[in-house]
Write a structure and sequence with these properties.
disordered N terminus; binds zinc ion; binds L-captopril; mainly alpha; 23 helices; two-stranded antiparallel ribbon; 6 strands
C-alpha cells in the first residue's frame, strides 16, 4: 500500500471514530462524576480502616494490608483521572468543573499507570511510614528510646552532651530510608507526569486555587512579612543560649546548634522558655496546672472538647472516646505522630496520639480536635468537597482555638486559680512566640526542599547538604555534628517519611491568627489581641461553622471571606498579636547582631 492510500484510509478511519464518539455532554460528565465519587468514598473508608490498624499496630501484615488498600485506591483514582480526560474541553457548571479539578489533584502520591510500578510505590510508601513509626534510638541493646521518649528528654534536658547524643541517635532513623525515598520520588514523579503535571511538587502547588507560580510568590510575600519578627526572636534566644552554654557552643553571630532548642527538629522552642531569663512565675505554667489537677490524657482532651462545645458545636460521639488512641501502648509499635481521623466520612471521628501531660501536648489536643470538628462540619458535602478550603485551613482550626487558651480562659474553666496581675504580657507572649513564630521558617522550608527534590534540582547526591542549606538559610540553625550524604536527615521528620505535604503548616501558622482575630471580633471582644479569648461565644462559633461547613466546595478565598471578611492570607493579625513582644525584643537585642 502506498503512503497516500494508507494516510487516506487512516484519516477516514479517524473521522468515522470521531463520528461514533460524539462530544460528551454535561449530563454524561455529571453521571461520570457521581459514580466516581461513590466509588472513591467507599475506597476511602477501606483505606482509613487499613491505615488506622497499621498505624496503631505496626507489623509486616498490617503494613501489607495498608499498602493493598492504598494500592486499590490509587489504581481507581488513576483510572478515573484517565477517564475524566474525555471531558477536558467540555464547558461545565463551576461546581462540576471544580470536582474534576479536585479529582485530578486528589492523590498525594500519584502513581504510574503500570500496576507493577504502582504497587512498588504504594509498598515503598507504607514501608517508609512503618520505619518511622518503629524508629528507635538504642543507647544499649536493652535501652531503646522511641520518639515520644526522645521528645520528652530533649524538651527537659539542659546537658549539651546528652542533647547531642539524643539528636544524633534519633537522626539515625533517616539513613536506611534514603534509597527507597529516591525511588519513591522517581515513581511518584512518573505518576504526576502521566496526569499532566511537571512533577509531584508542581502538582502539590496546584491545589491552592491559583496558578502554582502565584502560590510560590504568595509564600515569599508572607515570609517577608513575618521574617523580621523571626529574626528578632532568633537573636534574643541565641544570646540567652550563648549565656547558658558559652560562645564556643553558641556563637553570638552565627546559627544556633539545632540540638539546643528543646525539640528534635528545632521546630518549636517552647521547652527552652526557662532558659530565657524571665522571672519565674511571671507566666502561667500550663504543664504545672495540668499536673496539679491530676489530669490524665483523656482529661486533657475533655478540656479541648469543652471549648468547642462552648462555641455551640455538638459533643464528640461516644465512639470517639472508645476508639481513639490517647496514650502510647507499652507493648507494640505505633505511629505516635499525632493525627485526627474521620474513618467513615460521617461520625466515626478519632484521634491517635501518644499524649504526655505537658503544655505542648495540650496545644496538640486542640489542634487535633480542630481537624475532627472541621471533618464533621463538612460531612454533608459531596465527597470531593470533604476537605479543608485548602490544607492550611485544616491545620489552622484547632490552633486558632489554642490561641484562645489565655490565663483568663484557664481561670474560667477552673484550671488556674488566680490570673496574674499587672500588665506585663511579655512572658506569655514570648512563650507563645517560641511555639508559633519559631515554627514559621521550619514550616516553610520542608517543602522548599521537597519541591526541589521532586523537580530534580536536588538529587540524591545532595539530599542532605541541600536540607541543611535550607535549615541554615531560613531557620538559622546548624547540625551539632558534621553531616554527610550517608545520612538522610529529612527522613527523621515524620512528614517526609509519611509523605505528608508540609506547606500547609506554614500557611496555618499565619491563617490561625487571622481566624483568631475574626473569632475575637465576632465574640464582641475589643482590647489587645493577645489577651482575647472567645470561649463561650456562640456568635464566634456560628461564624466559624459557616466557614467550616463549606469544606472545599468553593475556592478558599470565599471561605476565608466568610469568617474574616478578607480574601488574602495575610500576616497582619500575627504581627498585631506579637506587636508588644516585637518592640520588647528589639530593645533587648540592641547592640547585638541580628541574623547569622
Ligand atoms: O503534624 C502536625 C500535627 C498533625 S497534623 C500534630 N503538626 C506539625 C508537626 O508536628 O510537624 C502540627 C504542627 C506542625
Ligand atoms: Zn494537623
Amino acid at each position: 500500500m502506498n503512503l497516500l492510500v494508507f494516510l487516506t484510509l487512516f484519516f477516514f478511519g479517524l473521522a468515522i471514530e470521531a463520528q461514533t464518539s460524539p462530544a460528551p455532554t454535561v449530563a454524561e460528565a455529571e453521571e461520570f462524576m457521581n459514580k466516581a465519587e461513590a466509588r472513591l468514598a467507599d475506597l476511602n473508608v477501606k483505606v482509613n480502616q487499613a491505615t488506622w490498624v497499621h498505624d496503631n499496630f505496626i507489623t509486616e501484615d498490617t503494613e501489607a494490608l495498608a499498602a493493598d488498600a492504598n494500592d486499590e485506591n490509587t489504581a481507581a483514582t488513576t483510572e478515573l483521572v484517565e477517564g475524566a480526560k474525555r471531558f477536558e474541553s467540555l464547558k461545565m457548571p463551576p461546581e462540576l468543573e471544580r470536582k474534576f479539578k479536585l479529582l485530578k489533584l486528589s492523590l498525594t502520591a500519584p502513581a504510574p499507570k503500570d500496576p507493577k510500578l504502582r504497587r512498588e510505590l504504594t509498598q515503598i510508601a507504607a514501608s517508609l511510614e512503618s520505619d518511622y513509626g518503629k524508629g528507635k534510638y538504642c543507647r544499649k541493646p536493652d535501652d531503646c528510646l522511641d520518639i515520644t521518649a526522645i521528645e520528652r528528654m530533649m524538651g527537659a534536658s539542659r546537658d549539651p552532651n546528652e542533647l547531642k547524643d539524643l539528636w544524633i541517635g534519633w537522626h539515625k532513623v533517616g539513613a536506611p530510608m534514603r534509597q527507597r525515598y529516591a525511588r519513591f520520588v522517581e515513581l511518584s514523579n512518573q505518576g504526576a507526569r502521566e496526569i499532566g503535571f511537571k512533577d509531584t511538587g508542581a502538582m502539590w502547588r496546584s491545589n491552592y486555587d491559583m496558578p502554582p507560580d502565584a502560590f510560590s510568590a504568595d509564600l515569599e510575600r508572607l515570609w517577608q512579612q513575618v521574617r523580621p519578627l523571626y529574626l528578632s526572636l532568633h537573636a534574643y534566644v541565641r544570646s540567652k543560649l550563648a549565656k547558658k552554654y558559652g560562645p564556643q557552643l553558641v556563637p553570638t553571630d552565627g546559627p544556633i546548634p539545632a540540638h539546643l532548642l528543646g525539640n528534635p527538629w528545632a521546630q518549636e522552642w517552647e521547652n527552652i522558655y526557662p532558659l530565657l531569663g524571665l522571672p519565674e512565675k511571671s507566666s502561667v505554667d500550663v504543664t504545672a496546672l495540668l499536673k496539679t489537677k491530676n489530669l490524665d490524657p483523656k482529661g486533657m482532651v475533655k478540656y479541648g472538647e469543652n471549648f468547642f462545645i462552648s462555641l455551640g458545636f455538638a459533643p464528640l460521639p461516644q465512639t470517639f472516646w472508645e476508639r481513639s488512641l490517647f496514650v502510647k501502648p507499652r507493648d507494640r509499635d505505633v505511629v505516635c505522630h499525632a493525627s485526627a481521623w474521620d474513618i467513615d466520612n460521617k461520625d466515626d471521628l478519632r484521634i491517635k496520639t501518644c499524649l504526655q501531660i505537658r503544655d505542648v501536648d495540650f496545644v496538640t489536643v486542640h489542634h487535633e480536635l480542630g481537624h475532627n470538628i472541621y471533618q464533621r462540619a463538612y460531612k454533608n458535602q459531596a465527597f470531593l468537597f470533604e476537605s479543608g478550603a485548602n490544607d492550611g485551613f485544616h491545620e489552622a482550626i484547632g490552633d486558632a482555638i489554642a490561641l484562645a487558651i489565655t490565663p483568663d480562659y484557664l481561670h474560667r474553666v477552673g484550671l488556674l486559680e488566680n490570673v496574674p496581675e499587672g500588665d506585663n504580657d511579655i512572658p506569655q507572649l514570648l512563650k507563645q512566640a517560641l511555639d508559633r513564630v519559631a515554627f514559621l521558617p521550619f514550616g516553610l522550608l520542608i517543602d522548599q526542599w521537597r519541591w526541589k527534590v521532586f523537580s530534580g534540582e536536588v538529587t540524591p547526591a545532595n539530599y542532605n547538604q541541600s536540607w541543611w542549606n535550607l535549615r541554615l538559610k531560613y531557620q538559622g540553625v546548624a547540625p551539632p555534628v558534621t553531616r554527610s550524604e550517608a545520612d538522610f536527615d529529612p527522613g527523621a521528620k515524620y512528614h517526609v517519611a509519611g509523605n505528608v505535604p508540609y506547606m500547609r503548616y506554614f500557611l496555618a501558622h499565619i491563617l490561625e491568627f487571622q481566624f483568631y482575630r475574626a473569632l475575637c471580633q465576632a465574640s464582641g471582644y475589643s482590647g489587645p489581641l493577645h489577651k482575647c479569648t472567645f470561649f463561650g461565644s456562640k456568635e464566634a462559633g456560628a461564624k466559624f461553622n459557616k466557614m467550616l461547613e463549606m469544606g472545599q466546595s468553593k475556592p478558599w478565598p470565599d471561605a476565608l471571606e466568610v469568617l474574616t471578611g478578607e480574601r488574602q492570607i495575610d500576616g497582619g493579625a500575627l504581627l498585631e498579636y506579637f506587636a508588644p513582644l516585637r518592640k520588647w525584643l528589639d530593645e533587648q537585642n540592641k547592640g547585638q547582631k541580628v541574623g547569622w
